[in-house]
Amino acid sequence: MISAADSSGSIASLSAVVKAYDIRGLVDEQLTEPIVEAVAAAFVDEVDAAGGTVVVGHDMRDSSPRFAAAFARGAAARGASVTEIGLCSTDESYYASGALAAPAAMFTASHNPAAYNGIKLSRAGAQGISLDTGLAAIRDRAAGYLEHGIPSVAEPGAVTTRDVLADYAAYLRGLVDLSGIRPLKIVVDAGNGMAGLTVPAVLGEAAGLPRLPLELVPLYFELDGTFPNHEANPLEPANLVDLQRAVVEHGADLGLAFDGDADRCFVVDERGTAVTPSAVAAIVALREIARVRAAGETGEVAVIHNLITSRVVPETIERAGAVAVRTRVGHSLIKDRMRETGAVFGGEHSAHYYFRDFWGADNGMLAAMHLLAEFGAQTGPLSELSARFTPYALSGEVNSTVEDVPAAYARIFEAFTGRAEFDELDGLTVEGVTAIDEPFWWFNVRPSNTEPLLRLNVEGADEATMIRIRDEVLALIRA
Fold first, then answer.
1. Locate the Alpha-D-phosphohexomutase alpha/beta/alpha domain: which residues (predicted)?
2. What confidence tens digit (pLDDT) does each residue in 386-432 have?
3. Is 110 marked active-site?
4. Which of 80, 150, 212, 370 lies at 20 to 30 Å from 388 by C-alpha?
5. How many Cβ atoms from other residues are within 10 Å of residue 439's Cβ?
6. Which residues, 6+ apart, have CB-to-CB distance to 433 below 8 Å?
7. What is the rounded CA–CA span in Å between residue 140 and residue 145?
């Protein structure tokens, strides 16, 4: 038996680190090795992995190797054999989970600062786990193991290592053929995260694959979990500045920016202007719809988008003859809907992109490859291509500190009743009634799961309309 934690504070920390879709907290304050061992044991129980295999990978954060080792101890104690894949991106861990048909644990805090770490858990086949689909049960069982110790089994599991990077790179190359595109110069900002390992393997020759017609200009490829150059969170505009400058200075065709665990990819065009994730989602959706139709797939083709992507995404999907499936925000929710609907692709405003051919999991690298394939088959600049998929004006996410969310909602209802339609699928979505001779607009306000914040996203037919609606709603929210 692995002994119980010697502090009830560790048990309290467990509730603090288990989030809606993953586990995340401050290293050695909230997330500790005893907690990790207990979570591992509970995970093995939940996914019935005793006698089977669990995959464990980790990012470049200083604490990740020892947390991965603690997880291996806890999992082996409950009878699971552990395959350690070492340094990897999150989507590489999904590849291992899918290709090996094994549940997996990935140690990363994604885009969070260096003081954090966490665990992304998957069932076999890269199937996500959320509070509603097993994470709450893991949390509760782990709390018991922390208090009473982890009971050993008659046959503890063994721990072995396996390098899957080359197989992962070859798998992606098999999904998107870039060999015939025109030569492109690309600046890639890895943010000192895991893209520094995966980009040279997938887009370069580091994994022994044939050379592609790509000239890569690396930016911050050194793996460094202290993030010495900028936070590995490209969703924040300040973290794109170095990439934007480098694209212009190098005369590059485009730039790619990955977050810390490299499962999200953001794009800038040749002028250094950010391409919206919605435009990328629309482009990839068209390619995936065309691909399955060309392969002879008949019947309904579904593509998923969350409710705060640009309206251009469902419009593009429907014009291509496919069915646009609208969902709430959240990666585990979308993974569930991918399985339920058999959707060929799914896109989120946050630059998470999901693929049926990748076990329904998200893969920023694969989305980037689709974009490169589409762009590389054309002659114009990326700004020209992206403009075709950016017909409306977007606000981006605007956060406001709000203590009384129902009161804010009530003010919005009162102000927009009679000139808008309301939808409460996820937060509050308000769409203007264009029949009253007003330009197209909509907005969504959603409360944060972890902070007293309301998140506002607005889209309008033009910049003036978007700004007008944005400012009106912000005044109501912050009243």
1. 18-133, 168-272, 291-391
2. 999 999 999 999 999 998 999 999 999 999 999 999 999 999 999 99
3. yes
4. 212
5. 15
6. 419, 420, 421
7. 9
- Quote the tokens at residue 445: 């306000």
Each residue of 326-380: pLDDT tens digit? 999 887 789 999 999 999 999 999 999 999 999 999 999 999 999 999 999 999 9
| 1 within some domain | no
> Could you give the CA distance from residue 327 to residue 308 in angstroms, rounded to a whole number?
9
For the domain that residue 470 is a member of, what is the CATH number?
3.30.310.50
Catalytic residue among 63, 89, 93, 110: 110
Cα(195)–Cα(107) distance, integer angstroms: 15
| φ, ψ at 119 (rounded to 5°) | -135, 130
Compute how many other C-beta atoms are within 10 angstroms of the C-beta atom of residue 238: 10
Nearest CA among 465, 287, 321, 320 for reference residue 391: 465
Q: Are residues 290 and 355 in the same domain?
A: yes
Residues 256 and 188: their CA atoms lie apart, in Å, by 5
Residue 63, helix vs strand vs coil: coil
Q: What's the whole-model pTM score?
A: 0.95
Q: Is 3 domain-assigned?
A: no
Distance CA(128)–CA(121), nearest Å, equals 7
Domain limits at 110? 8-163
Identity at 188, one-letter amino acid code = V
Checking 211-216 for CB contacts under 8 A at 24+ apart, the result is 212/178, 212/179, 212/181, 213/178, 213/179, 213/181, 213/182, 213/183, 213/184, 213/376, 214/178, 214/183, 214/184, 214/185, 214/186, 214/372, 215/183, 215/184, 215/185, 215/186, 216/186, 216/188
The domain tally of the chain equals: 4
Residue type, 434: T
One-letter amino acid at 191 equals G
Residue 438, helix vs strand vs coil: coil
**Side-chain half-sphere of 34: how many Cα atoms within 13 Å?**
22
3-state secondary structure of 134: coil
> Where among 361, 387, 413 does a domain terminate?
387
Whole-number pLDDT of residue 8: 47
Provide the token pair at 326: 């609208």
The residue from 272, 293, 310 where one domain ends is 272
Do 432 and 469 lie in a common domain?
yes
